[in-house]
Structures are given as structure tokens and as C-alpha cells.
Design a protein that fits this description.
single chain; alpha/beta; six-stranded parallel β-sheet; 6 strands; globular
Length: 155
């Protein structure tokens, strides 16, 4: 399971969250937390690494890669995993080869196809049911979910 950092709290709160999530059994943690400034994100990554959290347990959200300076920051810290929305793949395509693991957040059949075509190692297909995190998104429902994943060769 991959945990996702909260949309509230400061760097210290998120460090505690990441440590707790990994101790509770999460295999990795996606660094999302849009409330942080870019400098705070890299401070967070540095604190986690200094606290003996393996960089392999950290999944960088593509929202943190707006330019080559951010990519340099990610590479200098050894970031290996990236979570991306298929619609953003074109804008960051030059960066994809730097990541060992690519995870895609998909909300449609077309996005599932894109995820497969770029070599994603896994997808997150959502929302299946109504959620607070995607209130504007119509839920897929279990029937559509089942039909869509039937033709997808990704976990």
C-alpha cells in the first residue's frame, strides 16, 4: 500500500505522518502535500533521508516538477519514484526516464491506456465511489471499475 501525505500541516507534521505510515505497514509514501512551498518539500525530503527513511520509500508527486531546477533537486536526492496524472505526461516527458518507478493516477479508460503506453508500474484508478478528495469527479462505480481493469495489465 502507498500512503499519501496530508493536505494540511507543516514539514514536521508530515515527517511524523510519513514515519507513522511506514511503521504501520505502508510500502511507500507519496509526497503530495500541496500546502507546502517548493523549498519546504525539499526540506521535507532532506529531513526524511536524514532520519533514515529510504528514498526508495518516497514517491514524488509530479506537481513538484514544474521545471528543470526541480528535476535537478529530485535527482540530487536520488528520488526514484514518480506519481503522475496521465494528462501531465507530455509536459514532463523529458523527466520520465530519470525515475525507476512510475505510478499513474487514472480517472478514465483513456488514461489507463496512456499509463500502459508509458510503462507505468502501477495505476491508481479512482474514484470508485464518491469521495471528499474528488467531489467534482463522478464515481466510476464497481461495475465500470471491473470492466476497465479487465483489459489493463497493470496492478
Amino acid at each position: 500500500a502507498i500512503a499519501i501525505t496530508p493536505s494540511e500541516g507543516d514539514v514536521d507534521d508530515i515527517v511524523r505522518y510519513v514515519k507513522h505510515a511506514l511503521a504501520a505497514g505502508a510500502q511507500a509514501v507519496q509526497l503530495r502535500s500541496p500546502q507546502l512551498a517548493s523549498q519546504e518539500l525539499w526540506q521535507l525530503v532532506d529531513q526524511l533521508i536524514a532520519g533514515h527513511i529510504s528514498v526508495s520509500a518516497l514517491v514524488l508527486n509530479s506537481m513538484w516538477l514544474p521545471d528543470s531546477a526541480a528535476m535537478t533537486a529530485a535527482r540530487s536526492r536520488g528520488m526514484q519514484s514518480l506519481h503522475v496524472r496521465p494528462r501531465d505526461i507530455k509536459s514532463i516527458s523529458s523527466y520520465l526516464s530519470f525515475f525507476t518507478h512510475l505510478y499513474c493516477a487514472c480517472h478514465s479508460k483513456d488514461e489507463l491506456k496512456i499509463a500502459q503506453s508509458v510503462g507505468a508500474c502501477a495505476v491508481l484508478l479512482s474514484p470508485v465511489q464518491s469521495t471528499q478528495t474528488h467531489p467534482q469527479q463522478a464515481p466510476l462505480g464497481w461495475q465500470a471499475f471491473t470492466e476497465w481493469v479487465e483489459h489493463c495489465n497493470l496492478p
